[in-house]
Write a structure and sequence with these properties.
Layout: H1 3-19, H2 21-26, H3 36-39, H4 53-67, E1 71-75, H5 77-102, H6 106-113, H7 120-129, H8 136-155, H9 159-179, E2 180-184, H10 187-194, H11 200-204
Parallel strand pairs: 1-2
Bound molecules: heme C.
Heme C (HEC) binds near residues 73, 84, 91, 176 and 182.
C-alpha cells in the first residue's frame, strides 16, 4: 500500500467516524481500504461520496454473510486467528494419523492423536471460543472425546478401530463446519454477545 493511500485511508476512516458513527460501527467486521480512496485522492473526508465509504468497504463481507447462513461464532481477531491455527493443526493431526496407520506405526498414531485428544487446556479453550455461540463448546468437547478413542485403538494395535475412531472424529469436524462460522467482532461487541468482560488479548497475545 502506498503512503498516499494509507494517509487517505486514514482520513476516510476519520471522516466516516466523525460523520457517520452508526454506519461505521454497523459493519461489525474488519475494515478494508475503500476502493473510492484510489479513485479520487482529493475527495474531502466529509463529502457525500465519502459517507458511502463504510458501506463500500463492508458490502463484500455483508454479501458473504448473507450467503453463509451458518450460525455465527463471535470472536475477536486474535481469537479468530488462534482458532484458525488450531484448525490447521487439527488437520495436520489427521494427516499424521493416517500416515502412521498406513505404516502400522502405532506409537506414531497415538502421538498424532494426542494433538487432538481431550485435555484440560483443550476444554478451557473450547469454552472460551464457544462463549458467544450456543452449542459450539458441546460440539467441540464431543469432537475431542471422539478423538480420544483413536489413541486407545492405537495402543491396542487395532487398525480397524483406529480407522473407525478417526472417521467418527472427522464426522464431528464436518458437522461443526456445517453448523458454525466465524464472526469477527470488536471487543465491545464480543463482550456484549458473550456476557463476558474478559479481554481475550491477554490470553491470546502469545499465540503462535
Ligand atoms: C466445534 C466446531 C469445530 C470442530 C469440531 C472442528 N472445526 Fe474446523 N473450523 C470451525 C470453525 C468455526 C471454522 C471457521 C470457519 C470460518 O472460516 O468461518 C473452522 C475452520 C477450519 C479450517 C480452515 C482454517 C483456515 O485457515 O481458515 C480447517 C482446515 C479446519 N477447520 C479443520 C478442522 C478439522 C480437520 C477438524 C477435525 C479434526 C475440525 N476442523 C473440527 C469449527 C470446528
Amino acid at each position: 500500500m502506498t503512503h498516499a493511500l494509507l494517509r487517505h485511508r486514514a482520513s476516510l476512516l476519520l471522516g466516516a467516524m466523525l460523520t457517520f458513527p452508526v454506519a461505521f460501527a454497523a459493519c461489525g467486521r474488519q475494515q478494508t481500504a475503500p476502493a473510492a480512496a484510489e479513485e479520487d485522492p482529493t475527495r474531502a473526508p466529509t463529502s457525500v461520496a465519502t459517507s458511502h465509504a463504510p458501506a463500500t468497504a463492508c458490502a463484500p463481507l455483508e454479501q458473504l454473510a448473507a450467503m453463509d447462513t451458518r450460525r455465527p461464532v463471535p470472536l475477536q481477531p486474535m481469537m479468530a486467528w488462534h482458532q484458525k491455527q488450531n484448525m490447521m493443526e487439527h488437520l495436520v493431526a489427521i494427516q499424521r494419523i493416517t500416515d502412521a496407520l498406513a505404516r502400522e506405526d502405532w506409537e506414531g498414531v497415538a502421538a498424532a492423536s494426542a494433538l487432538i485428544e481431550s485435555s484440560p487446556q483443550m476444554q478451557q479453550m473450547c469454552h472460551h471460543m464457544g462463549a458467544g455461540a450456543d452449542g459450539f463448546t458441546e460440539l467441540a468437547l464431543d469432537f475431542h472425546r471422539r478423538a480420544d478413542a483413536i489413541g486407545v485403538a492405537a495402543r491396542a494395535q487395532d487398525g480397524t478401530a483406529v480407522l473407525r475412531a478417526t472417521s467418527s472424529a472427522l464426522e464431528a469436524c464436518t458437522s461443526c463446519h456445517a453448523t458454525y462460522r466465524q464472526d469477527v467482532v470488536d471487543p465491545a461487541t464480543w463482550e456484549a454477545r458473550t456476557g463476558s468482560a474478559h479481554a481475550p488479548a491477554m490470553t491470546h497475545g502469545d499465540a503462535r
